[in-house]
Design a protein that fits this description.
Blueprint lengths: L2 E6 L5 E12 L4 E6 L6 E6 L7 E4 L4 E6 L14 H8 L5 H10 L7 E7 L2 E6 L6 E2 L3 E5 L9 H13 L7 H8 L17 H7 L9 E12 L3 E9 L5 E10 L6
Antiparallel strand pairs: 1-2, 1-10, 2-11, 3-4, 4-5, 5-6, 6-7, 7-8, 8-9, 11-12, 12-13
Length: 258
């Protein structure tokens, strides 16, 4: 997953509003969002290569999402699968800070990552490129392939667009999808320098990424209101960038968000 935009304890109706795109190589096999047969409480897509995931929620309100930290100079092909960090949290009963403390103790075994974990009591963030457990403050946030709220052009634009969507009393899902569909590249002078070529920096700069071999595979909306009602929507995209399937799930958490 390469961008997560979210409003946490910011909207009067919704405890959490999340809009996220997962970018991945088209050849990597994955399954769309579903309740997992081996972990029936987990709702998430699934990476079929290592059986982890990039974003998910449970019926008890445990939620987690992951992005990679882009640093090709430190990439290790023998590192542990980062997607297991998400599924590992969703399948455990550890409090979020305790889980992240355990992750911190083995952080060097993974390539760079950003991890959001939460439950109905709160939301926390950790990166193994910063090594600090952070309690996320209420507000509108953005996470891509650097640290939380790093002002890359797609994060700045995405947070502004999300704020505009949330100015209304109700939240229109179509407007959230429009944010995730933005393919406008950033000007060259605003591009970050992450160790890839200028051509790739340009290609990776939009919210929706499309290259011949790699791009946005899925988009996800997650909305949780203060009564504990959950809406989970997922769009799957073809390598051409066309939406080819949509899945929707609605359920009520066993505990209301605080």
């Amino acid at each position: 997953m390469c961008i997560i935009l979210f409003a946490y304890r910011h909207h009067p109706r919704y405890w959490l509003i999340m809009a996220a795109n997962r970018d991945e190589f088209y050849r990597r096999p994955s399954a769309p969002a579903h309740f997992w047969p081996d972990w029936p409480a987990i709702l998430a897509g699934r990476d079929l290569e290592h059986m982890g995931t990039w974003l998910g929620i449970t019926k008890n309100g445990r939620l987690a999402a992951l992005t990679n930290y882009r640093d090709p100079t430190s990439y290790r092909p023998d590192a542990l699968s980062r997607g297991k960090l998400v599924s590992g949290y969703l399948g455990s009963d550890q409090p979020p800070p305790a889980y992240l403390a355990a992750v911190d103790r083995q952080a060097g075994q993974y390539n760079g990552f950003n991890l959001l974990v939460g439950d109905t009591a709160g939301l926390w963030y950790y990166s193994n490129r910063h090594n600090t457990i952070i309690s996320v403050a209420p507000g509108i946030h953005g996470l891509s392939n650097h640290l939380l709220n790093t002002p890359w052009p797609k994060i700045v634009a995405g947070r502004q667009k999300l704020a505009a969507c949330l100015a209304a009393d109700d939240v229109e899902e179509d407007n959230l999808w429009d944010i995730l569909a933005d393919r406008q590249p950033a000007p060259d002078h605003e591009l970050p320098a992450t160790g890839v070529s200028l051509e790739l920096e340009r290609a990776f700069s939009p919210i929706f990424v499309a290259t011949p071999d790699y791009g946005t595979r899925t988009g996800t909306l997650l909305l949780i209101d203060y009564a504990g009602n959950v809406r989970f929507l997922e769009k799957t995209y073809s390598p051409a960038g066309d939406s080819i399937a949509t899945r929707e799930y609605s359920f009520k958490l066993r505990q209301r968000p605080q």
